[in-house]
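**Backbone shape codes:**
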Amino acid sequence: MNLDISIAPQVIFYIGSFPVTNSFFWMIILTLTIIIFTLILRYSFKMVPGRVQSLVEILLESGYDFVKSVIGTDEKARKIFPLVMTMFIFTLTANLFTYIPGQAAVVLNTTDGPVALFRAVMADYGMVFVMTMITVILVQIIAIMMHGPFGYIGKFINFKSPLSFVLGLMDIIGELAKVVSLSFRLFGNVFAGEVLGSVMLFLAPFVMPLPFMLLGLLSAVVQAFVFATLTLVFVMLASEIEEDTLVEQASM
């Protein structure tokens, strides 16, 4: 018996010329699950909440309070909270659903051989990269909406002095580094956890996997929180341009 570990997701079928991989297929299922659960919860709200509604309300209220404590004001919190909370819920769901028992046993026979039907969504770097790019682009849009396009661009293109120009170029590199910071951290931790769990399951299937699975569950929650928090911090740092601009204008 061989242990097959692949960084790239495997194709399970094609829709025309579009390849549907096992990670993409699992992502679609998770997305539909979240949407259906949200709609059911939305139209079953009660004045006296049940356990599920209470848990959701506590999660949303705690999340909003955390966002507000970091970003500073209600106005900014209302703009960024939907993005941050969506990223947290989706990432957390994708990470936790990976540990549903029996997924590895569901295999499809394709022309390329047997292929696992399900794969951890965040263990597919292509998926993480797309989500990261959406996050980074939305962060820039929100930052521009907060303080105007000229104030935001002025941080990166500044000809007041050679030092200001160099610092502007470094800020551009810093913005590009956000893609690496967000995507590699999430992908690396999830993929490493998946590989480690597979290796332990292969070597000692009845003893060793349990403690590593518990660590993986903890990492699943932590990585979802870290991804959402980094998104929030990036917005907060971008929004600080407004205050810097006001200080410069007051000193002129």
